[in-house]
Design brief:
This protein folds into two domains: 188 residues; 97 residues, no CATH class. It contains nine helices and ten strands.
Length: 289
């Protein structure tokens, strides 16, 4: 995935680490020298996939994150990397590697992984490649075409990530953000929350657009103006919309399930940084949202 900012364009990607919980002591962030050494290995891997990547500036951080921390509207984690890199002294033209590490065990505030999202089986090191638009286009196209099929990290890179982060790494591979979105979409399908994905996808890729989820028995959700509005229904309004011909059996249990589903959707959207508002709808009519 590529984005543009001011006079620079970027490829947004990640080193994905599939990990196994174990008796090691994982570290969410590593020091500057370790981050720099890992970044050099990453740069070498990426140049092997697309030689033109060596002409670009690679920016990364010695930390790993959950997918919800990367997949947020406006890509704030990547934006923070871009802004920090812009302050670094620039040498000549051509590629260079910038890696941010922890100082006294602390990263810049905008790069600190969220403790509440730690411990998952997939950890991601964000990668930002920037430079000439033509070169970025070539590299971006190559990554979108090839990484999902042959994007395994080099053995030295995987071992370095395992040792420095204190993780038990089963697989280490590179993904574009489109690849990551496809992976998360499948995960949400397996978790039974696929109906919410179009709302989240719109928030990520087209935040100025509108998107609806209006498919009973699912909650009514409207994404517009960068915000997701979830309809709060009274028991009577819920029954009129979701169970008009029901004989009354188990209605209370089903309404409780509906409300739990609303909270679940709100929690997922909130984890992805999508603002959520609950709006009382007297009739359960989409027009009320």
């Amino acid at each position: 995935m590529s984005t543009s900012s001011s006079d620079r364009v970027h490829v947004l990607a990640a080193l994905a680490l599939e990990v196994v919980p174990g008796d090691v002591d994982p570290r969410s962030a590593i020091a500057q020298d370790a981050a720099g050494a890992l970044a050099e290995l990453i740069a070498r891997d990426l140049a092997a996939f697309a030689p033109q990547a060596a002409q670009l500036e690679l920016v990364t951080v010695g930390a790993h994150y959950d997918a919800v921390e990367l997949l947020r509207p406006g890509w704030p984690l990547y934006r923070e990397l871009e802004q920090l890199a812009a302050r670094a002294p620039r040498g000549g033209s051509g590629g260079r590697v910038i890696a941010f590490g922890a100082h006294d065990h602390r990263l810049p505030a905008g790069l600190a992984p969220a403790p509440e999202h730690a411990g998952g089986p997939l950890r991601l090191v964000p990668l930002l490649l920037g430079g000439d638009a033509d070169v970025v286009g070539i590299v971006g196209d190559a990554f979108e075409r090839d990484l999902i099929e042959r994007g395994m990290a080099g053995a030295a890179t995987a071992l370095a990530a395992q040792e420095r982060f204190g993780l038990r790494v089963e697989h280490a591979r590179y993904l574009t953000l489109h690849d990551l979105m496809a992976m998360v979409s499948m995960q949400y399908e397996h978790a039974g929350i696929a109906p919410l994905w179009p709302i989240l996808e719109t928030a990520l890729l087209a935040p100025g657009s509108d998107e609806w989820l209006d498919a009973p028995p699912e909650p009514l959700v409207h994404f517009a103006d960068g915000e997701a509005r979830i309809a709060m229904l009274s028991p009577a309004a819920w029954r009129a919309k979701h169970a008009p011909d029901d004989d009354g059996t188990s209605l209370e249990r089903r309404f409780d399930h509906f409300q739990a589903r609303q909270r679940q959707f709100a929690a997922v959207l909130g984890a992805h940084g999508v603002p959520v508002t609950f709006a009382h709808c007297a009739q359960g009519d989409p027009a009320e949202l």
